[in-house]
Automatic annotation (TrEMBL):
<dbReference type="InterPro" id="IPR051719">
    <property type="entry name" value="CASTOR_mTORC1"/>
</dbReference>
<protein>
    <submittedName>
        <fullName>Amino acid-binding protein</fullName>
    </submittedName>
</protein>
<dbReference type="InterPro" id="IPR045865">
    <property type="entry name" value="ACT-like_dom_sf"/>
</dbReference>
<dbReference type="InterPro" id="IPR049447">
    <property type="entry name" value="A9CJY8-like_N"/>
</dbReference>
<dbReference type="InterPro" id="IPR016540">
    <property type="entry name" value="UCP008459"/>
</dbReference>
<feature type="domain" description="A9CJY8-like N-terminal">
    <location>
        <begin position="13"/>
        <end position="56"/>
    </location>
</feature>
<dbReference type="InterPro" id="IPR027795">
    <property type="entry name" value="CASTOR_ACT_dom"/>
</dbReference>
<dbReference type="Pfam" id="PF21631">
    <property type="entry name" value="A9CJY8-like_N"/>
</dbReference>
<feature type="domain" description="CASTOR ACT">
    <location>
        <begin position="60"/>
        <end position="121"/>
    </location>
</feature>
<dbReference type="Pfam" id="PF13840">
    <property type="entry name" value="ACT_7"/>
</dbReference>
Length: 129
């Protein structure tokens, strides 16, 4: 990755990562979220959405916060996720990453948020809260 400093925005709210059966469609409760992401594979359907929208009984890991890398990012850029994940891994902070056409989103547990923000800003990343 080049030496250009990336800017990230901390999205409001707390989010959950849900696991649904591979035969399920994207549920309406997920679509009502300010931010949602859906991935369907041959094994599962994964949903990321506002944790308040997740009904009881859904398998979910909650209490995630989202850092959006301000884009759009050029497809020729190399090592963006690698550089961010390395900074956080060195601080023993687990991430869940989502990539879209325009940018990347890094989810960190709310309990790790302050440490993640400190580590990233210490490495030259700008974080807008």
């Amino acid at each position: 990755m080049s030496k250009k400093i990336l800017t990230m925005e901390l999205l409001n709210g707390k989010y959950g990562v849900c696991r649904l059966d591979k035969t399920e469609s994207i549920p309406e409760w997920a679509k009502e979220s300010k931010f949602f992401s859906a991935t369907k594979t041959s094994d599962e359907v994964s949903i990321v959405c506002d944790e308040d929208n997740i009904p009881n009984g859904i398998v979910a890991e909650k209490d995630w916060r989202i850092l959006k890398i301000i884009g759009p990012l050029d497809f020729s850029l190399i090592g963006i996720l690698s550089s961010v994940s390395t900074v956080l891994a060195q601080k023993r902070i687990s991430i869940f990453a989502i990539s879209t056409y325009d940018t990347d989103y890094i989810l960190v547990k709310n309990i790790d948020l302050d440490n993640a923000l400190f580590a990233l800003t210490n490495e030259g990343y700008e974080v807008i809260k």
